[in-house]
Batch of 3 targets.
Target 1
Amino acid sequence: MNLKELQVKSINTTMIIKVISSTSSSNLLSYLVNQEHKVLDAKGVIPNASIEEVKKEFRDREVLNNRAKKIVYNIIVAFPIDEDLSESLENQLLQEVVDEFSEGNDLWYAVKHPNSSTHKHFHIALSAIHWKTTKALKMKKYAWRAILLSRKLEEKYRLKQVASAPKLNHNQRKEDLKFAILHALSSSKNLDSFVEHMTHSGYKTIVGRGVSFVEIESGVKFKGSDVGREYNLRNIEKALANEQSLDKPPTHIDNLLDIGSSILDTALDLFPDSSTEFIPNVEDGLPKKKKKKPKFRLR
């Protein structure tokens, strides 16, 4: 089994739905269309409208409530790469997810990224502001609701299922982070771009003497080397310098693409103003100086 086959086998085991809140609809929409994509459907905007027209509709909605901190949600729906999804079934799943989270809101824009080598997925950009009430969506317990909805849809539409719902324990978080790093590397050509992609995958990247990742949803922090020795800053920079991707494994870094059993194409907040800001990792600290032993002289 080659490396790519191992990736597909190891990370695509179940349907996953993730809900990501954002403070910038413009950044989110740009992220969705600034790669090969297909518009699946939309409400409140014409599906074949230009992205600038779509952004304007979202901005006009946001003006109605300038106190809301979370003004748009990125809902990601991902499937195993070998899941057989007809266009009709895909549209049904899209509508089920919208019905669960939209709370009757009438402005959303759904985009599919068809060329992922590791998992099928689509995104729904959902405005968080109601047109009539001008109030923001409540989105209570959305992370747990997303897990329950995944299991419900697997059963209802006879999709591939796992024995039990995934638990977000410490090891699972590491596997999710591994995939996010590899996903970002496959789409980035430099460190700034890598940091931006990690933000859209739900991680704030802190670059100093080393590299750390903070899971935005929970605040849990990992050093790259804690995830695996292949994920330290030096190896990430080497991979970016060589413009490596999932289709072209690194030649100078052993096992960089040895990824785990979970996928994550998502996050909680986008940081539009600081997504590419490098922040020193104060936890790493400076190397401690060794104390010199006193020298004793015979008199």
Target 2
Amino acid sequence: MKLISIVTPCYNEEANVDELYERLRKVMEGFPNYRVEIIFIDNDSKDATVSRLKEIARRDRNVKLIAKLKSLGVAIELSEVESIGRSMTGRPHFALVLMKKGYVATVYDAFKIYLGDEARAHVERESVALTEAIGMVNGAGGLSVLAHPVRIGKRDNAQEESLIAELCQAGLRGIEVWHSDHRPADCERYEQYVNTYGLAATGGSDYHGYVKPNIELGTGCGGNLRIPRSVLDNLLLSVPRSRA
């Protein structure tokens, strides 16, 4: 399938980017045999252009998700989902609508069957490269940390460490050692990376309320987490002083 790329620069276009996006999207609906990407390039806008573009990116993914669900025979409209999630509409809100309409019994089922990363209606999220994200966080005076590294898709330990070493060269300053998805062997391996590469160690349960009912706040899945206070104390010491 051929690709059409539409590139448009933006400077202080907060009031216009939404309308431009909708017009472009409607025009491109007339080219069903092409893959289309719309690329907005912000030129250091002083207004809320960037915030609007981020919201457009989120909504674009939701539009694609609605189309995939409909192709699977799921009768659902974006307006139904946005009535729950409003400006922050995401997959958890899709899950609630799927439950309400009887397509699934639980949020877990919604993600397993339709919404999860390996599910039937999954839509890839547009995101910046890891090295670019690291530079942005560090440049803003933050502490760049690789969250739940078990999910980066490198199940071979050598490949995983090679990637982490590359990220450290790009400025990575921390890694999430303890997480609800991490097995004891994973935690041990990530602690080794902390020592080898001089990284800060972080941890968290990844609690999401009703979206992940099997995970408890602070203690993880079935109590598999017991993160000591010293982790927080050491992390605070790693934060740039101007931001601590």
Target 3
Amino acid sequence: MRHRFDEVRRPFLASLVSATVRVRKLSERVGRYGKFGTGFFIYGGEGMIITAYHVVTNSRVVWVEPLKLSKRGWRIRTTGKYVADVVYRDKYADIAVLRVRKGYATGYVAHTGKDTTLPPVTHPLIRVGYDSSGSIIAEGHVMSHTKAPKSKLQHIDISMPSDSGGSGGPVFDANGILVGVMLWCGKDRHEAQWCSALPIGTVIQRLLRSKEIREHFPNGMG
């Protein structure tokens, strides 16, 4: 489904898109039903990308394809293809970290802000992702805060459509501040779509405790 927005929002939405990438395994082609996921740059200068663990699973190396919003219309396209190493896996929380090899640098990153508390119920949210209908920008709101069945980690449940391929994408608030990583989607008993995101505060806490992150990003996460 294609979305249209007010033109005055174009620069703002373009910056969110430019922080986002499509992620896929080296051995897989991307077709209408191909396997792929989403990720996003976080913290400038280090080539760090966060995505979902189930997007990369046991892969050591993946492709990342940066996204860009067209100057006219609201189509999102890829702007190249780069190799990235999977440097951190957290199956328990379903997150992974990639590091882009030399050859690509982005001026756009997802900003976390100083306040990493959970956004309140009804708070408006925006996500950028790549699914079977193509790259999209979608808007929704916080439905509730729940614990994941397996990990028991706190998640943000969002009233927002998605599809296969959106996993690992960024979820922003209305000001463009990163609030979470989208992990899975489902439908309620009324067939309404909803998604679940891991709060960025939880992600950062887990990364800061990681030996792999300290080794691959010696300059820190700031």
